[in-house]
């Protein structure tokens, strides 16, 4: 089986082709740098993403603040992470880097503020 991916590690956006036999990668081609190969291997075996969103803030001059997961989370956990972020309310003041959710969706990953709210 051949699987094609678009690498997201740099602006080139290489189309990386993986040949997979019996669940094992037998060939990787199309990448112009080593990062493309590493990305393709990870994407096939354990795809992860940093989740960015907004969370509600109470008692501030704005309704929402931007947030993100401090580390990448498993791709199959993204909807669970978003459900928790959408339920979250934080009280002002909030500074960049403040923890909004300690252990989002049981992943062990924090959700942190990426903007200030006063």
- Largest sheet report: 5 strands, mixed
Spell out the CATH superfamily of the largest domain.
CPE0013-like
Query: What would CATH call the class of the largest domain?
Result: Alpha Beta
Radius of gyration from the CA trace?
A: 18 Å
Mean pLDDT: 96
Number of helices: 2
Order of helix and strand elements from N to C terminus:
EEEHEEEEHEEE
Which overall shape is indicated by the principal axes computed on the Cα atoms?
A: elongated
Strand content: 35-45%
Biggest β-sheet: strands ordered side by side in the sheet: 8-5-6-10-9
The CATH topology label of the largest domain is CPE0013-like fold
Number of strands: 10
- Helix-residue proportion: 10-25%
CA distance, first residue to last residue: 54 Å
Poorly predicted tracts of residues: none
What number of domains? 2
- Quickly give the structural class: alpha+beta
| CATH architecture title of the largest domain | Roll
Q: Gist?
A:
The chain is α+β, with helices and mostly antiparallel strands and 118 residues long.
Tell me about this structure.
By secondary structure, the protein is of the alpha+beta class. It folds into two domains: 2-45; 52-113, Roll (CPE0013-like fold), CATH 3.10.530.10. Helices cover 19% and strands 37% of the residues. The chain is built from two helices and ten strands, in the order E-E-E-H-E-E-E-E-H-E-E-E. It has helices spanning 34-45, 78-87; strands at residues 2-6, 15-21, 24-29, 48-49, 52-58, 64-69, 73-74, 89-91, 99-101, 111-113. The strands form three sheets. It has a five-stranded mixed sheet. A three-stranded antiparallel sheet has the order 1-2-3, covered by helices on one side. The N and C termini lie far apart (54 Å).
């Amino acid at each position: 089986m051949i699987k094609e991916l678009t690498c997201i590690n740099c602006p080139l956006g290489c189309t990386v082709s993986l040949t997979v036999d019996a669940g094992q990668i037998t060939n990787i081609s199309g990448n112009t740098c080593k990062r493309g190969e590493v990305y393709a291997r990870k994407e096939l075996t354990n795809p992860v993403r940093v989740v960015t969103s907004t969370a509600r803030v109470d008692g501030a001059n704005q309704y929402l603040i931007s947030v993100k997961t401090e580390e990448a989370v498993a791709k199959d956990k993204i909807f669970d992470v978003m459900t928790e972020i959408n339920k979250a309310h934080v009280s002002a003041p909030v500074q960049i880097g403040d923890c909004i959710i300690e252990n989002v969706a049981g992943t062990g990953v924090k959700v942190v503020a990426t903007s200030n709210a006063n």
